[in-house]
Design a protein that fits this description.
Blueprint: E1 17-21, E2 27-32, E3 35-46, E4 52-57
Length: 71
């Protein structure tokens, strides 16, 4: 996965970004042939205004069966 670097908040112009984990069952899920797979979500948040600038899944490969995962 490519690393995305956010330098500035598009809402307030702030330059301090923090990475947070989204909790309370926040995640992405996919149903592949009757098997539910999921992966946790993370967010990049502006420390100055609190805006969620980006929401993403770090380990997208967890959504695929082991034999279909990229090495």
């Amino acid at each position: 996965m490519k690393e995305v670097k956010i330098e500035e908040c598009p809402f307030c112009g702030g330059e301090q970004m923090i990475e947070v984990a989204i909790s309370s069952y926040g995640g992405v899920s996919i149903n592949l042939v009757g098997k539910l797979r999921s992966a946790p979500l993370f967010a990049t948040v502006c420390r100055d205004c609190g805006s969620v600038v980006r929401t993403y899944c770090k380990d997208l490969e967890r959504l695929y069966p082991k034999k279909e995962r990229r090495k």
